[in-house]
Amino acid sequence: MTRNVDVHKELIHTRSIKTQVFRRDDGLWEIEAYLLDTKGKDFHLASGVKKQGEPIHEMKLWVLIDTQFNILDASSESLAVPYEGSCERINGDYKKLIGLNLVQGFRKSVHSLLSGIQGCSHITELCSVLPTTAIQAFAGEVIKIRDHAEQNSEEMPFQLNRCHALRTDGEVVKKYHPKWFG
User: Fold this and answer.
1) Where are the alpha helices (DSSP H) in 28-144?
2) For the whole model, what pTM was predicted?
3) d(Cα 132, Cα 122) in Å, to the nearest integer?
4) pLDDT digits over 16-44, tens only?
5) Which residues pair with 30 in a beta bridge?
6) Most buried pick, 50, 134, 145, 155, via CB within 10 A?
7) What is the domain partition of the chain in residue ranges?
8) Distances in whole angstroms, Cα of residue 48 to Cα of each of 45, 56, 78, 102
9) What sign for the dihedral angle of Cα 182, 152, 164, 158?
């Protein structure tokens, strides 16, 4: 089935996820992740009515990391929730992220520590975007991204084998990183 652009559509739900990364003067890095859910019409919850466009969920997750992807501090904030007085009680549990490493078993650890009734499903979902957000921020800043002219290095470029386009047996690597093709 193909997408039909001629059929009438009604906006029902919008989820926006935004991340930002900041380099600090002390050499550490801050990642802010933000989630916003709104409805295209008034939405009836057990706790009351949320008007069209009014946030159903509005959450923030903040982590402080070093250049080795270690989480040094963390916090979360619930700005809009469907069950005020209950949902936001879990925010302090996101301190459990402290000590985890974003690129070494992070998602599995988050699932173990903060999934289901141990966390907020929406804030825990924000955790899933932290590793790739950090990698994108570090690319060219902390992680040296070698170009075609730097093929004499003995260390494989960080980005190789991290997605299907940059697999070492693929055309992109053959063309731009021939030393590592094969």
Assistant:
1) 106-114, 121-127, 130-138
2) 0.86
3) 18
4) 999 999 999 999 999 999 999 999 999 99
5) 22, 64
6) 134
7) 13-138, 148-180
8) 5, 11, 18, 38
9) positive
Residue type at position 36: L
Average pLDDT, the chain: 93
> Tokens representing 97?
């992220």
**Alpha-carbon gap, residue 147 to 149, rounded angstroms:** 5
How many CB atoms within 10 Å of residue 8? 4
SS3 call for 69: coil
Helix (H) or strand (E) holding 172: helix 171-176
Angle at 124 between CA 136 and CA 28, to 5 degrees: 40
The two three-digit tokens of residue 47, written as one number: 């706790």
Judge whether 130 and 31 are in contact, CB under 8 Å. yes
H or E element at residue 175: helix 171-176
Give start and end residues of each alpha helix (H) in 30-149: 106-114, 121-127, 130-138
Q: Which residues of 81-119 are buried (b: 16+ CB within 10 A; e: fewer)?
A: bbeeeebbebbebbebbeebebeeebeebbeebbeeeeb
- Pair of tokens at residue 49: 């009515």
Over the stretch 112-156, which tens digit does the pLDDT of each residue have? 999 999 999 999 999 999 999 999 999 988 887 655 445 567 888
